[in-house]
């Protein structure tokens, strides 16, 4: 067929389909692959992966992506009234394309990240070369090279927009006039995530929706929504009238019609609302013109989710829940003036000691005001003293009204289960800088624990910490810095940053280097340049300081944190005679999937923490272990009254 590259075929891995108006057929082509050589028997074929320093993508990532890569196709167009002509849009050099206006439009956006793949070993921020193809004039125009944000077409295809994290601005390219406009530079607020605390360029707060005919776009700042004309002819308008910033409420547009791609002048917009001070959630409506256009519909001490609107009337169905209220289905016919409860999905909750959730505030050791959530038993008695479980990851205070179903644990403690059994659970926020994530965790978590321990109803001699993944790393680090905690649980922890830095995330096949240089691990430098930072933040090098009994879970198919990280820490602590256990679930990944294993972990976490914080007898698996000869036959759950374990050191730091 004319237009199809030589040696290419139409692929059955891309299902042909019509554009929305039926005037185009969209289909995929691909280079024809050579037939498999069947003259060589299988046992004569070497099985080897060849890694080379010039590979744009390392072999493990290639192998993870192999199935998709073998099915890769390149988009093209056939016009039914010109059946012998094919327009090849994407190709091996520019593999990605999107056609505007539900594939009816005049413009196609093409982009590639191929020239920059090698850098993604350490640079998490992808870069793109991008072009606009005018299908009316058959002219292809390059928008830019090395864009630090993925470009996207406007709703009807007249503009291409992207976020530039380097310049911290939104940009639009007019696909007709070929002009580029900075959309946000003249507005006196930030459109970049001001809470970004990793050593990479900040992301944006996102785009809400486009207007009809691409006349404007709604762009979010931290609180409010701005109406911006992409050609720069009109002054940007804060359509939420600065109410969000004034009241510390975050507004975001909600599309209640999945078939609607843009808003029309008559539309009344539905906005989600989150009060950053009280943590309340709800909805507002916003008229696009008139006096007092923003109107509160509901803002309450609940989480609202799974919102659905009836197609032709203003009837909304939604779920409503908080920590001690199970998610139930409601319907409102008058925009939340009233709401009818349709279900009572979890009546058995009333038969259990559940709990309450409240904000708790303190100041970190480096002077930063912080918040966390304090979960107390429903029958809390301030005259009693309660053991405390402290679970953390990064930040949790915005989850004040989140519901947690009691269920077997995939990796972390189940909060309502522990609260129901007479524990106080504390989930502190952590303030991070760059270069010292371990110290930042100490300054936040230990300061919060000390502030909490000042309350008479806290049994400060029976406090424990638990975390998974990044939280597991922080637990592993904290027990090298303090003996404040009676016991600790670390799931999938990095224990040695100097070895983890050069490892692979086997689930994706990607190098781990970017994590330390640019993202969550927050070192902010290469190991060659800043080896001491990697050492200072690695718990394994300070294992001799550990006096806290530690339960590690690390599974042998972990695709995020290399399994050997848990082993390194366990072997070092074991050699030093420290009380440490390692749970290795076979053929399980970063978090448990098999329910039988989740149940097992939940039992062992409960027994471990009950022993150290409540004085319960230790189970056999803790005192004598489970020999390989008894694997699958004995579980070691039974309590061992014949043996006792030496208590941890009572020294404090």
Q: Any idea of the CATH class of the largest domain?
A: Alpha Beta
Low-confidence stretches: 647-653
Question: How many strands, what sense, and barrel or not for the largest sheet?
Answer: 8 strands, mixed
Tally of distinct domains: 4
Can you count the helices? Answer: 13
* Global structural class: alpha+beta
Q: Tell me what portion of residues adopts beta-strand conformation.
A: 25-35%
CATH superfamily of the largest domain: Alpha/Beta hydrolase fold, catalytic domain
Account of the protein in words:
16% of the residues lie in helices and 29% in strands. The protein is of the alpha+beta class and 653 residues long. The chain has 4 domains: 92 residues, no CATH class; 145 residues, no CATH class; 110 residues, no CATH class; 279 residues, Alpha/Beta hydrolase fold, catalytic domain (Rossmann fold), CATH 3.40.50.1820. The chain has an 8-stranded mixed β-sheet, with helices on both faces. Helix 6 packs across helix 7. The longest helix is centred in the last third of the chain and has 20 residues. The radius of gyration is 29 Å and the shape is globular. The C terminus is likely disordered.
How is the topology of this model organized?
Layout (H helix, E strand, L loop, with lengths): L7 E3 L6 E2 L6 E7 L27 H6 L1 H5 L3 E6 L2 E7 L7 E4 H4 L3 E6 L15 E7 L4 E9 L4 E2 L5 E6 L4 E6 L5 E3 L24 E5 L5 E4 L4 E4 L8 E2 L4 H5 L1 E6 L7 E2 L5 E7 L5 E6 L7 E7 L2 E7 L6 E7 L2 E8 L7 E2 L13 E9 L5 E9 L8 E6 L23 H6 L3 E5 L8 H17 L4 E11 L1 H9 L8 E5 L5 H4 L3 E2 L4 E2 L1 H5 L13 H6 L13 E4 L10 H12 L4 E4 L11 H20 L5 H4 L30
Parallel strand pairs: 14-19, 29-30, 29-31, 31-32, 32-35, 35-36
Antiparallel strand pairs: 1-3, 2-3, 3-4, 4-5, 6-7, 7-8, 8-9, 10-11, 11-12, 12-13, 14-15, 15-16, 16-17, 18-20, 20-21, 21-22, 23-24, 24-25, 25-26, 27-28, 28-30, 33-34
Helix pairs in contact: 6-7
């Amino acid at each position: 067929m004319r237009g199809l590259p030589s040696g290419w075929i139409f692929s059955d891995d891309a299902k042909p389909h019509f554009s929305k108006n039926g005037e185009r057929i969209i289909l995929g082509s691909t280079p024809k692959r050579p037939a498999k050589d069947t003259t060589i028997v299988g046992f004569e074929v070497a099985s080897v992966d060849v890694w080379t320093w010039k590979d744009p993508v390392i072999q493990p990532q290639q192998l993870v992506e192999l199935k998709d890569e073998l099915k890769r196709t390149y988009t093209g167009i056939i016009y039914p009234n010109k059946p012998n002509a094919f327009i090849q849009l994407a190709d091996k050099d520019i593999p990605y394309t999107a056609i505007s206006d539900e594939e009816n439009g005049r413009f196609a956006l093409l982009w590639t990240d191929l020239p920059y793949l090698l850098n993604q070993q350490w640079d998490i921020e992808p870069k793109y070369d991008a072009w606009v193809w005018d299908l009316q004039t058959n002219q292809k125009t390059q928008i830019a090279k090395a864009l630090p944000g993925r470009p996207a077409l406007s709703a009807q295809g007249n503009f291409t927009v992207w976020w530039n994290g380097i310049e911290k601005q939104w940009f639009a390219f007019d696909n007709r006039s070929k002009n580029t406009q900075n959309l946000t530079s003249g507005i006196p607020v930030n459109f970049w995530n001001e809470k970004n605390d990793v050593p990479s360029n900040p992301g944006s707060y996102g785009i809400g929706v486009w207007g009809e005919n691409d006349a404007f776009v709604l762009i979010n700042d931290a609180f409010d929504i701005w109406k911006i004309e992409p050609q720069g002819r009109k002054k940007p308008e804060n359509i939420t009238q600065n109410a969000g910033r004034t009241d510390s409420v975050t507004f975001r547009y909600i599309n209640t019609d999945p078939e609607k791609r843009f808003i029309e002048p008559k539309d009344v917009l539905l906005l989600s609302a989150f009060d950053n001070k009280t943590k309340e959630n709800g909805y507002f409506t916003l008229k696009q013109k008139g006096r007092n256009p923003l109107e509160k519909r509901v803002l309450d001490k609940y989480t609202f989710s799974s919102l659905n609107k009836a197609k032709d009337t203003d009837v909304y169905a939604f779920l409503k829940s908080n920590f001690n209220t199970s998610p139930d289905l409601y319907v409102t016919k008058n925009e939340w003036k009233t709401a009818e409860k349709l279900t009572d999905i979890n009546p058995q909750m009333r038969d259990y000691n559940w709990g309450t959730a409240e904000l708790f505030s303190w100041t970190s050791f480096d002077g930063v005001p912080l918040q966390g959530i304090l979960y107390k038993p429903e029958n809390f008695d301030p005259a009693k003293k309660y053991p405390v479980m402290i679970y953390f990851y990064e930040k949790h205070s915005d989850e004040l009204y989140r519901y947690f179903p009691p269920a077997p644990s995939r990796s972390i403690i189940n909060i309502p289960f522990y609260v129901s059994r007479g524990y106080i659970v504390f989930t502190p926020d952590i303030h991070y800088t760059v270069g010292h994530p371990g110290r930042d965790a100490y300054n936040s978590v230990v300061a919060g624990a000390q502030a909490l321990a000042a309350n008479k109803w806290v049994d400060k001699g029976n406090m424990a910490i638990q975390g998974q993944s990044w939280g597991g790393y922080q637990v592993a680090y904290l027990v090298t810095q303090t003996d404040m905690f009676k016991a600790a649980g670390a799931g999938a922890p990095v224990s040695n940053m100097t070895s983890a830095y050069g490892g692979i995330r086997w689930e994706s096949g990607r190098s781990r280097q970017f994590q330390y240089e640019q993202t969550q691990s927050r070192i902010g430098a290469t190991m060659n340049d800043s080896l001491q930072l990697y050492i200072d933040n690695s718990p394994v090098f300070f294992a001799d300081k550990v006096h806290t009994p530690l339960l590690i879970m690390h599974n042998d198919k972990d695709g995020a944190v290399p399994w050997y990280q848990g082993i390194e820490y366990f072997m070092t602590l074991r050699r030093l005679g420290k009380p440490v256990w390692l749970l290795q679930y076979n053929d399980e990944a970063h978090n448990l999937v098999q329910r039988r294993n989740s149940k097992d972990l939940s039992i062992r976490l409960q027994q471990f923490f009950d022993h150290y914080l409540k004085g319960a007898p230790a189970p056999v698996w803790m005192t004598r272990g489970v020999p390989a000869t008894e694997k699958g036959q004995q579980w070691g759950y039974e309590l061992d009254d014949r043996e006792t374990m030496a208590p941890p050191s009572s020294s404090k730091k």
